[in-house]
Amino acid sequence: MTAPQKPGGGFNRPPGSGPRPFQGPGGNRFRGKMPPRKEAEHRINHFIRAQQVRLVGDNVEVGIYSLQDALRQSQEQGFDLVEISPNVDPPVCKIIDYNKFLYDKKKKEKEMKAKSKASEVKEIRFTPNTDEHDFDFKAKHAIEFLKEGNKVKAYVQFKGRSIQFQDRGQLLLLKFAERLAEIGILENMPKMEGRRMLAMFAPKGKKK
User: Fold this and answer.
1) Enclosing H/E stretch for 82
2) Entry pTM
3) 74, 126, 183, 204: most buried, per Cβ within 10 A?
4) Residue 19 lies in a domain
5) Are 89 and 125 within one domain?
């Protein structure tokens, strides 16, 4: 038996079935609610709530203006009025091309992310009995790593009874620090962790 029709050809839903749920993108259902909206990163133009703003930037006379006056100036320049510091009184606004501002910001963040990923920690391993030839070879590798922007973790591995030669390991790592001094900075004095004595080096100019 078919459900009774509404005037105009529609069908009545069965009694007690409740309201039809909203079918959101990707099949998600929101009963009685729309999907949440993402908050804008900045307030711009007529979305700015303050009645007065402090206007800064190029091609403007820095000062406090009414919102209407600041909007008029932005329209005359053909750009957007963007609230860049909302938590001061009055909020600070700037006249800029907002789309270009967001593009440049995302580009810079992407470059910084790629740069941070490219930086690694390279390990250089010694023993208390590392000879001069091996020391020089490893120092050359460490210098290359530092020039590429990587950090270098140098450590002396103690096995068995060699643990009694910790002073020898410390002298070796301090000698290594002298060899790298022109390109790298010793971030901490050599210290023991388990059966290893460690020292960390960073490229010059990148120590935090």
Assistant:
1) strand 80-85
2) 0.43
3) 74
4) no
5) no
Length of the chain: 208
Note the pLDDT tens digit of each residue in 30-54: 444 544 444 567 889 889 999 999 9
Over the stretch 75-127, which tens digit does the pLDDT of each residue have? Answer: 999 899 999 889 899 999 999 998 998 899 899 888 877 666 556 899 999 99
State percent of the chain over pLDDT 90. Answer: 46
CA distance 121 to 133: 24
What residues pair up with 44 in beta bridges, in sequence order? 82
Domain co-membership, 187 together with 141: yes
Q: Are residues 166 and 91 in the same domain?
A: no
Cβ-based neighbours of 166, under 8 Å, separated by 6 or more: 158, 192, 197
How many domains are there within the chain? 2
Provide the 3-class DSSP secondary structure of residue 197.
strand
Is the distance from CB of 64 to CB of 52 less than 8 angstroms? yes
